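[Help] Beginner question about ligand-bound structures

Sorry if this is basic. My supervisor gave me a protein sequence and a SMILES string for adenosine-5'-triphosphate and asked me to "get the holo structure". I don't really know what that means in practice or what format the answer should be in. Inputs are pasted below exactly as I got them.
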Amino acid sequence: MSGRGVLRKLFYKKQHNKDERATEIGMPTNVKQHIHVSKNSETGMLEGLPSSWLRLINTQITPAEQNENPDAAIQAVKFHMYTIKKEKAQDEPFKPFVTEEAITEEDLEIEKLLDKKNAHQSQDSDLSIGQSSEEDVAPNDNFSQRQTMPATPTKHSMKKKDAMMDLTAVVQDLTLIGDESEESPILRKKEMMNAALTDEEVYEELKRICNKDDPYVRFERIKQLGAGASGVVFIAIDSKDNSRVAIKDIDLTKQSKKDLILNEINVLKGFHHKNLVNFLDAFLSYDHLWVAMELLDGGSLTDVVTEVVMKEGQIAAVCRETLQAIAFLHSKGTIHRDIKSDNVLLGMDGTVKVTDFGFCANIVGDEKRQTMVGTPYWMAPEVVTRKQYGKKVDVWSLGIMAIEMIEGEPPYMKETPLRALYLIAAVGRPKIPRWESLSPDFQDFLDKCLHVDVDLRATADELLAHPFLECAMELKTLTPLIKAAQRILHKSYD
Ligand SMILES: Nc1ncnc2c1ncn2[C@@H]1O[C@H](COP(=O)(O)OP(=O)(O)OP(=O)(O)O)[C@@H](O)[C@H]1O
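Answer (accepted):
No worries, everyone starts somewhere. Holo just means with the ligand present. The predicted complex, written as structure tokens, is below.
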């Protein structure tokens, strides 16, 4: 992980921990509680939310901002609390092999409730959020309707009353996540999911699909590259052909959702592209799964953007290569959902490859998703505001990554994640630094990536034909930047 990567993670963690201490989130609980959300007519501040939520909002979003964009404030706090809850629930270190099912596990509960609430609201415009009957959250609810959930109306198209109704739905949702009372009527995963495999079945299937070689014999461990939430990554030499590979070592005993690993391995096996960090093989040794990948010895793009100033031609080259990866994934019906410089790895020769497919979602045609997934600063507004979204979220994130290449960091990086979420929802397209110094083609490219209106945002294929990419410099011109960054960061892949 890069220096900034470390800082970024520490910062995010720190904010989470701070917020967590302040909020003491409990289990989703007493949904019959009567709460009436409103805005104070004098201060413009939100009232009626659980006190923990209000504390969080009031410390990070000004009264004027709450007044201006109450729905953005609530969406942001909801998102924020949701991710905290997920972090607490998923204390196992494994991440990359998380499928849509895992990501939506809790979201399904929430969305069903929202769905019901929305239906309820079509007949009732009262702001009261506790007025619905027990039936709204009955434990026997069938959660399979998630895919058909109607899209939330866009902010721009909503009339004031509608906006407040929407806000009510969100607050209902918030209450269910953050309520501090004791009862817990929401189903747990094992009651909702169909046919989850037992651990024994997972081990059997892993044994079947993994390479039978003993990884401890076949690979010589050279050097640790880092330890992510998902396991330890190290450089190894493959005795079979003396090639150097990157291996992610996952301790399965620490993974509660082992069945999801299978899905991801099967997905990874099917993807091979010159701009993806390709999966090589998987090995099982007792409780450890070793996933061998191509080794990228130039480090992450984050290392470069934080340490070195890139020329437009170099930015264009990285954008083109990343877009080729995105377009490939999209052509396979897959959204990456976590495009950012940390997930773009570089080879010493200037090769550019996208990695970390843990958040990928498979979609069919123009099908839409609604799960809140990604890393806050790179998230498209439609994800933050829980609208239905599709492949173009990756194009937005690419636009944010282009800003990283201009500025060294994404917009709002100095803000807390909660404020960043609020600003993404409230401001939409971020202000782009040094705008005047950018070429017209680059400006137009960024415009096309960062349209809040998804219909106006370009597709990955369209961007591959954009004139900005014609100024792309040769990939080998990235090598001096990589070397400089490695020198500064004291990194070596030998
Ligand atoms: N194929 C690879 N080649 C070279 N370096 C890699 C490769 N895969 C991962 N790394 C590096 O190894 C380190 C750990 O990676 P990993 O993906 O486990 O962690 P992370 O991205 O920091 O966290 P997370 O698990 O949350 O994604 C990072 O610095 C990453 O850039």
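A couple of things worth pointing out: The longest strand covers residues 219-228. The longest helix spans residues 100-121. Feel free to follow up in the thread.
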